[in-house]
Amino acid sequence: MGALHEGHLSLVEQSVNTNDITVVSIYINPSQFNDINDLRNYPRNFQQDCKLVRKTGCNLVFAPEDNEMNPSDDTRKFDFGQMGSIMEGKFRPGHFNGVAQIVTKLFDIVKPHRAYFGRKDFQQLAIIRKLVNDYHYAIDIIGCTIIREPDGLAMSSRNALLTPEHRKAVPLIYQTLIEAKDMIFNSNVSKITSSVEQTINSNPFLKLEYFQIVDSYSLIPIEELRPENPSTACIAVNAGKVRLIDNIDFIS
Fold first, then answer.
1. What class has domain 157-251?
2. Distance CA 17, CA 56 (A)
3. 24 - beta bridge partners?
4. CATH superfamily name and code, 6-144
5. What predicted TM-score, i.e. pTM, was given to this entire model?
6. How far apart are CA 196 and CA 177, in angstroms?
7. Can you say how many angstroms the Cα of residue 185 is from the centroid of all Cα atoms in its chain?
8. Cα–Cα distance between 124 and 118 in angstroms, integer?
9. Which residues of the chain form CATH 3.30.1300.10?
10. Catalytic residue at 8?
């Protein structure tokens, strides 16, 4: 959705290194924002985005206008079951339906063989994979590693909106995830969740929205950690007016 950073560019570079032709789509999709202020404040810098993409060797930037992508109301409804109703789906109603509406249009227009999505948006990645499977798209969905700042903060376009005070506080998010992972062999889900909540909310610049340990494939919440069950811990934190998400593999 623009405001590109090294995390986005790592996806582009991976595609350039693997494929003959790479297309980068840049489109701020109104239908996946459930907060109009979030849409208004979302950072935009298209010319800078194009300069950054050009350096990667990308072949084409596809940057449609709203009236091209949505000439009429898109009334399609997508049902992702529980995958779409927890975590981001719970706190951002309609978000994933908006994502599905625009991603299917992009897929239908570009017709890619492979599509690259960052693992920072872990729930979105799982839902895109379900979308591709349910609607029989012949597309390989490639999940790409989270790119982090030196202090551990996951790169995000929204990081540019942080105040200096909040920017100093937000590395605690990833630090807390690492500490939570260290607890898996001598604690349980309830105690880990309580520890995360206490750690995040003890910082006056941060407020926990959710912390959830889920099955890495189905996204079903985990009640008991088992070595044979891959799981991922996902978190959303409000840093003032900026909402940040992150995740970490718990059991691979």
1. alpha beta
2. 10
3. 61
4. HUPs (3.40.50.620)
5. 0.92
6. 8
7. 28
8. 9
9. 157-251
10. yes
The pLDDT of residue 1 is above 90: no
User: In 30-60, which positions are buried (b, 16+ CB within 10 angstroms) versus exposed (e)?
Assistant: ebbbeeeebeeebeeeeeebeebbeebebee
In the structure encoding, which two tokens stand for residue 26, read together? 């840049």
- Please say whether the beta carbons of 109 and 2 come within 8 A: no
Rg of the chain, C-alpha, whole Å:
18
Q: How confident is the model at residue 67 (pLDDT cuts 50, 70, 90)?
A: confident
Query: DSSP letter at 217?
Result: T
The label of the residue with tokens 């339906």 reads 97
Q: What angle do CA 88, 92, 93 make, to 5 degrees?
A: 115
Give the E-state strand segments of 106-185 in sequence order.
114-118, 140-144
Residue 98 · residue 80 · CB < 8 Å: no
CA gap 185, 217 in Å, rounded: 22
Single out the catalytic residue among 5, 8, 95, 166: 8
User: What is the DSSP code (8-state) at residue 14?
Assistant: H
Average pLDDT over residues 2-27: 94
Q: By the 8 A CB rule, do 88 and 245 touch?
A: yes
Only one residue has tokens 């105040």, namely 163
Where in the chain do CATH 3.40.50.620 domains reside? 6-144
CA-wise closest residue to 12 among 168, 147, 103, 137 = 147
